[in-house]
Amino acid sequence: MAETTVKKLADVVGIPVDTLLTQMKEAGLPHTDAGEGVSDEQKQQLLAHLRKSHGAQDAEPKKITLKRRSTSTIKTTGAAGKAKTVNVEVRKKRTYVKRAAVEEEERAAEEEAQRLAEEQARLEAEQEAKRKAEEDARKAEEDALRREQEARARAEQERKEEEARAGQEKAKRASVPKPAKKAQKEETAEQRAEREAEERKQREAEDARRKQEAEARKKAEEEAARRTAEEAQRIAEELEKREGEQPAEPQKEEEDKASSIVRDAVEAGYRTEERQSRRRRRKSKAAGVAHGQMKSSMNKQHGFKSPTEKMVYDVEIPETITVAELAQRMNIKAKELIKAMMKMGEMATVNQYIDQETAVLLTEEMGHTPRLVKGEEEALEDDLATLADYSGIDADGRAPVVTIMGHVDHGKTSLLDYIRRAKVADAEAGGITQHIGAYHVNTDKGMVTFLDTPGHAAFTAMRARGARATDIVIIVVAADDGVMPQTEEAINHAKAAGVPIIIAVNKVDKEQADPDRVKNELAAKDVIPEEWGGEYQFVNVSAHSGQGIDDLLDSVLVQAELMELKAPATGPASGVVIESRIEKGRGTVASVLVQSGELKVGDMLIAGANYGRVRALVDENGQQVKQAGPSIPVEVLGLDGAPEAGEQIQVVPDERKAREVAEFRQERDRDLKLKRQQASKLENLFENMGADEAKLVNIVLKTDVRGSLEALIGALNDLSTDEVKVSLVSAGVGAINESDVNLAMTSEAVLLGFNVRADSKAKRLCEQEGIDLRYYSVIYELIDDVKQALSGLLAPEKREQILGVAEVRDVFRSSKFGAVAGCMVVEGTLYRNRPIRVLRDDVVVFEGELESLRRFKDDVPEVRNGMECGIAVKSYNDVKEGDKIEVFEVKEVARSL
C-alpha cells in the first residue's frame, strides 16, 4: 500500500493543507511539509487530538443524521410531442437520537420541574410568613392607636369632670348668704393658708398628670413610628434580596403590596414628625424675617467682604517637587508660577520636577515663607546612620590604611611586592596596575593595610577614591625620572583628602638616581622635606634591593601612632567598596574595606544601590574567613549586582530594610540619569540646529571590574571632538555574552573586551555576523586603537602648495585664444593641468585654470624656472603686463587626534 502524504490526507478529509499542518502541529506531530508521509499511528494520534479538542475523547455521539440520495428516471412528452427523459433526484435527511440521551433529557426536565415546584412552594411559604408579619405589625399599630385614643378619651372625661366639679363649687359658693360671706371673710389667716395650700397641691397634681399623659402619648407615637420604619426597611431588604429570583409579575405585585403596607403604616406614625417639621419651618421663617428687618435697618452693606491682606503660607519644600504641587501648596494657579519662573529665566512645564533651591527662590518671590523638609532619601540615610551608631561601643586601636600612589612605572606595586614578599607586579598585564589592590601586612611592628592604586592617566577617579578611603598616603617618585604629571595629580588628591603624605623616593640604587632633584622639584610644588623645615617625610627606598623599606614602615607606624587611629571592633560593619566585578561561577565579587564594626558571614549588607546576604568572605590570599574587623580588606560574595567603586557599605538588620533602601537608590539614580539626558537635549537643541552631524564610533564595552570600566568610560569620552564622537552603546562588567553581540549587531558597534572574553555562543555569533570583536589587557592599547579609529573618520586636511610663478612681460592677441601672455618663469615650474591664480600688485584678481601652455609654437606639459613661455588663461582676457601667474596644487593630509 502506498504511503499516505499530508497532501493526500488533506484531499481525503477535504480541508486545506495549511489547516491540516496546524492541527498536526497542535497534536504534537513533527510534520512541516505537504509531501511528508503520515503513518497509521500518526493518523490515530491526530484523530485522538481532534476528538479531545472537540469534546470528550471517548464520548459517543448522542444523535446521528443520515442523508440519503436516490436518482430515478421518468419519461415525459415535450412540446413537440416527442418523448423526453428526465432525471429526478430525491434527497432525504433523517436524524436518530440515542435513547439514553432522550431519557437523560426527560430526567433533566423532570428535575427542573421538581426544582421549580419546590421554589414555588418556598416562595409561597415566605409570602405567607411575610403576610403574617404584616398582620402582626398592623395589629400592633392598631393597638397603639386604640390605647392612644383611650388615653385621650380618659383625659377628656377627666377634664369634663374637673370642669363639672369647679361649676358645682362655684354654685355652692354663690348660694351662701351674705352674712356667711362676711363670716368667711372674717376667717382666720391660718385657715386661709391651709385652703390655699390644698388648692396648690391639687393644681400641681393635675399638671403632673397632664404632663405624664403627654409623655406617654409621645412615647407611643415614637414607638409606633420606629416599628413601622423597621418593618418597612425589612420588607425593602427582602424585596431587594429576591429581585431577579421571582418572575416580573409576582415581584411587581409584592412591591405594590409592600408599598401599600408601608404607606398605610407610616402615615400615622410620621404625622407627628410632619407637624414638628412644619413648626420648625415656621420658626425659621420668622427668624429669617426678623434677620432681614435687622439688616435693612443697618447701612444696607453686603454681608461678604473680600480679604484686604494677602495670605502668607508656610510652604513645605522637599528636595524635589513638581511645579503643580508647589503652586498648590502656595494656593495659586500653576500658570502664575510658570510665569514667575520665566521672569527668572527658567522654563518648565506643569509636571516637571524642580530642585529645592529653585523652589525656595520661587516661594520667596511669590511672598510666602519656605520651610525645608527632609525628603525620603534623607530619612532613609538618617535611619542608616542610626544603625551605624557606635556610641555605646568602646573604640579600640586599629591598623592604619595606607594608599600607595604615584606616576605609572615608578615602582609602586614593586615596593608593595617587596613588603608582601609576593609577585604581584608580574601578574599585572603590561607591567602596570589597573585595579585597586588591597592587602594587609603583619610586620614586626604591627599590622598595616595597603591600597595600591594605578598610576596611568586614565585612572584619575581610582586614585581620588584611594585617597578618600585612606589614613596615610605614600607617594612613590622614581629617583631617575623625578616628578611626573601623575605625581602632581596624586599630591593634589592627597591634599584634597586632608591626609598625611610620606614621599618614598624609589630606585635610589640606580646610577641615574638623583634624590636631591626630586626634593627640589617637590619643593617647587609646595612639598617641602622635614630637613628643609617642612612637614613632609622623605624616605629613600629601593624596591629591588629592599633598601629603606624598614625606615618607610617605621615612618608609617609613627605617623599612625600620632594620629591615634581607633574604631569599634564590634557592632554592625560599615566601610567602603574598593572594587567590584562579576566572575563566572561566583557571581558578584566586591572588594570592600571594613572601617568600623565587624563584618560576618550571613550579614545583610547594602552597598550603594545593591544589597544581598554575605555568602562568603575571602581575604587577599584567597582563604575564606568568618569575619573581618576594622582596616581589613576582604572580598564579599552574595550581592545582587556589582556596586560602584567608592560606594559606602552598611550592615542592616533585615532584608526588608535593605531592599527598601536599595530600590529607592536605584529609582533615584534612574531619575537623575533621565534628568541629565533631558537637560543635555534641551541645552544642545539650538546648538545642533543646522550643524553638521558628527561621525560616531559605536562601542559596546565589557570589562572585568567596575574601576576599569569607570576609567575607560572617562578616557573614551575625552577622545570625542566636534567632528567625531565615541558613542558607548553599552558598558558593563562581566564576560561578553550573546545579548552584547546582538546589541552590537543592531547598533553597528564594535565589541571591546578588557580583561574579559566572549563565551562560545557569543563568539560563534560574532563569526557568523562579522562583528568586530577585540580583546585588550592593557588600557592604553585600547585607548590608542579607538583614537586611531576616530582619526580615520576625521575629514582630511587640505593643504595648498605653490608650484611655480611666472611674470607677464608682454600680451599678444590671438584669434583662437584671445589674450596670450608672454611670460618668464621666475620661480618653480609651471604645469599645464594645475589650477592658477592671476595676481596684480600681489592681489588675486582671478582664479581658474590654464587653457594653453606653449614654448615657441609647441604645446608643452611644463616650463621650468628661467624659461620663457606663452600662457593662455581660460575664460580670462584681462591679462596685463606686470601681472604674475601663480600655479598651485591642493593636497589632502590625513588628520589625527
Would you kindly provide a written description of the structure presented here, covering whatever features stand out?
It is a single chain. With 897 residues, the chain is α+β, with helices and mostly antiparallel strands. It has seven domains: 4-59, no CATH class; 131-172 and 198-277, no CATH class; 314-373, no CATH class; 380-395 and 568-689, Beta Barrel (Elongation Factor Tu (Ef-tu), domain 3); 399-564, 3-Layer(aba) Sandwich (Rossmann fold), CATH 3.40.50; 692-793, Rossmann fold (3-Layer(aba) Sandwich); 797-893, Beta Barrel (Elongation Factor Tu (Ef-tu), domain 3). The protein is 43% helix and 27% strand. The strands form eleven sheets. Strands 11-12-10-13-14-15 form a six-stranded mixed β-sheet, with helices on both faces. A six-stranded antiparallel β-barrel has the order 17-18-24-21-20-25. Helix 20 (738-747) packs parallel to helix 21 (760-769).
